[in-house]
Request: fold
Amino acid sequence: MPDLPRSAEAVERAAGLAGSDAAVRAIRPLVGGTHARTWLIQTANPERELILREFPAGDEAAWSETRILTALAGLGGLAPRLLASGGGPAAAEGPWVVISRLPGRADITPSQPAEWARQLGQALARIHAVPRRRLTGFPDVLERPGGSPAALHGPAATLISGCWHLLTDAPRVLTHYDYWSGNTLWDNGTLTGVVDWSGAALGPPGFDVGWCRLDLYLLYGEHIADQFLDSYLAASEQSVPDPVLWDLWAAARSHHDVEDWVPNYRDLGRRDLTAAELRNRHTAWTKHLLADR
Reply:
């Protein structure tokens, strides 16, 4: 039996959103994430494409994504629009959301990594520029598991703990929470959107900046990570004093988990990034950063 969405209700709702006479023509899974199962639903009469994201039973991320995407209202085309949601906490098939499909696809193997990194920096600057009035009721990133001191491990943990006040006192912006290259979409070398918004929160700009720089170092090394930072700073009204500190926070937050990222990179074409290779690169990045302090 082919792999299909758990929720027949979600598929039926998606078809109804396409039109009263629409019929589901195809459903296929999309790769690039491990938290939610993501599907492309294509309809006929009329032809339309929608995205279904199914979350584990009891997972609050679906509720968060519903609230966040409603507040962002498409973010000027940079984020999907919420179209429907369902499957409450008690539903056996788990909660789900149907969202608009943005053009493009995930691409972490660009032909021009420097230009790719430049656009990643510009897109993050746009996210961080969202007015605070649109973010009423958003949680603080420090209230999320990945933003707490309990998430700190490895060689950088002690240093980050000692500088905690510098992190917590930084100004707040809209943070994506998981801003890495696999959560962006591309069409012919142009960044067309950012996806997976369930963790978005208010937080310091450096929270996203350091996280994306870690991803870019793992993929292409320090030069590309620096290209991203330069582009972000040139496009942003935010400052990121002491970038190494934010890089070390990302390293400490990911120290225990970096091997778990293998499927994310593998499914998007980077089969060379094995668990051992990710650990080696993570260790090298952490050592390099600590030497700069």
